[in-house]
Amino acid sequence: MTEAPGERSISDVVDRMSRLLDGLPPQLAARRVFLATYLRTTQAVSKAIDGASFEDPGWVAAWDVVFADLYLDALEADLAPDGRPPRPWALAFAAPSDLPPLRQVLLGINAHINYDLPQALLGVITDADFADPVLLDRRRRDHARIDGVLAGRVAAEDDELSAQSAKRPLDRVLTPLNRRASARFLREARNKVWHNTIELQHARLAGPDAYAVRLAELELLSAARIADLLAPGQVLLRLAVAGFGVVLPPVA
């Protein structure tokens, strides 16, 4: 399993996920769906790193650790008696437990990509890195290459989720379309995440207060997107119309 620079590795993340998965009580079985999906995806990312799929594998490994920790910290906060996870995660975790597994996964993906991913990128791209166009382009390309890993998991994860619950007729009809649409959703999300990362980096340059304001904006936008996905109806069709991600508006 790939090692990330520093004190923690992707192996440590996988161990942490596995411990949390094993420790979830039966009444929180809905939490298992996204966590198990994320565990398998993390293992796929590690395999891709070891397979030389990225220009800077050490950076991708470090990024993956920071990214996963944001979700796992939110999950542990939700499990703690007095924990307070960020608003997008609080809404996702509070979703009805009888939602279909696919809906549970989409809620988790949306919160994690829209709210956590820009923060994770900032955690492993310094302000000096942002000032280096050659290095920044390399980071952007590796960011894009993650899409290939995720797209490679779509069919397997859809089969896994299908095995957990019977699909309605409309879901079965939409499955091929959903798999084709996944690439578009990933591309759209990646572009929006990169925009939001740049906006947060500009705020970081302006100081802690400015950054806190912009992060609060992103939290609010991401939470609103989760609330939209919790509305009744065919969520995948709604995503196809409204799009996947959120966009921080430029500072006036």
Automatic annotation (TrEMBL):
Entry superkingdom: Bacteria
Name of protein: DUF5995 family protein
Pfam families: DUF5995
Record-linked InterPro entries: DUF5995
UniProt source species: Terrabacter terrigena
Organismal lineage: Bacteria, Bacillati, Actinomycetota, Actinomycetes, Micrococcales
